[in-house]
Amino acid sequence: MFIGKLILFIAIGIIACSSCNKDKIRDTAIAGDRAAYNAVATLVNTSNVKVTTIAGKLDDPGNAQDGNGSNARFWNPTKMVYDSRNNLLYVADGTVIRSIDGQNNVKTYVPLGAIGSSYNEILDMDVAPGTAGGTLYIITKENDLWKIVPNGTSGKATNIVNRIYGGNAVGALNSGDHFDLPNGLATGANGEIYFFNEAWNTMHRITLSGAKTGTVSTFAGKPLTVRGGTGTSYPYKNGLGDAATFGSRVSDLSADTVGNIYVADLDNELVRKVTPAGKVTALFQYTNKIGSDLDGPVSSATSNNVTQVSARKDGKMIFFTTYGNANNGLSALRVVRPGNDVTTLVGYG
């Protein structure tokens, strides 16, 4: 399958389990349909996938050290976004944001303490509307929403929502507690902000009317009656708005420029698509948690735990990562072409 020439970045980290340490793909970010970088992964076709380290050194995390290529160190890189306005890759590294340019120079963009507490870990981020590169939205562990704007060579953080306590409130922005384990953030085609509250299994949409004003509405997913439910979620179901259900662990969101949102539905082992109208569908087969990465037509392809998702701008390719299969616990990088097929690009080596 020829998939064109594009750049895909991969963040790789180490996770601990009771008896092992395994490599895990932490996030992906698409740079676009051109070879502008010596990238982590340059995809030409499925028989020629090249993976190259551009910054940092595996198994040598250091302590958030700036520098070029292998001289740089990352502390806990979990989320990334590529900004085509200035051709920089932004990496959420714990509680700071780092930038990587086309020469693999790593610089601190938003320093420690700029988004409040030094323990306020960044959970997700996306490019925010505007003409200036480096304009970002971020969501944090302390249920905050921030906007980052460039200020010289650094980023200036402005708080939009700071509620501290978790909740699933809708209505006027800042009128209640809107965020509760918000794993997933994506900017829509018209500047809307989408996020997923894992504690309630719901996706929400923020429509801003001012710097800190706007409305929050439930966009998709049937909310649990009690925070966290009883340890189980509703049965799997596609549908419109709250007629659809999500698993109890959604780990990532991504958007295309058409207005669709893509969901890494970890527990249901699927990539889900949510249209601008809020209609939820699956991009390949639901297997009731069989846990196997099977390539092929979308009518028969299946997946293990879907951990991250990254959509190409036109929505014709959706890259996603999985963790674990029937034989081992390693990560895989896969791509689904909606309505066509699913292919594993990297993994299980």
From TrEMBL:
InterPro entries: 6-blade_b-propeller_TolB-like. It comes from the Bacteria. This is SMP-30/Gluconolactonase/LRE-like region domain-containing protein. It comes from Ilyomonas limi.
